[in-house]
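tool=predict chain=A
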Amino acid sequence: MKKIISFLIWTVCFIVLLIISDQFLLRYPGSSVPVLGEFQRFYHSFRSRVLQESLTLPPTETAPSSAPASVPQTAAEKAAPQYIYVDESGQLNFASTLDEIPPRLRDAAEPLTGD
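tool=predict ok
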């Protein structure tokens, strides 16, 4: 009986520690510590994917940088496949534009979405 009570007490302590850590990472403004801020952004993203909910990040103060507010797509992102289609042999293919797909297969091509 003593072992069961000890196990339950340690389990409750562990769960309370997890809840405290969770709330710290959600609410503490970590903008002054760069590593903490990066980890909080990761944790918000990870938690929202695991719980399948939308979390809003608290406003953070960012240091001014020379990067523009809206970063244009890189060449690799622009060259990323935008369409998917199946050829005559049944092989799955990707294409950046409809022009890269053979004309007879364009009707069956489906655009890729970011979802």
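The chain has a mean pLDDT of 78. The chain is about 40% helix and 10% strand.
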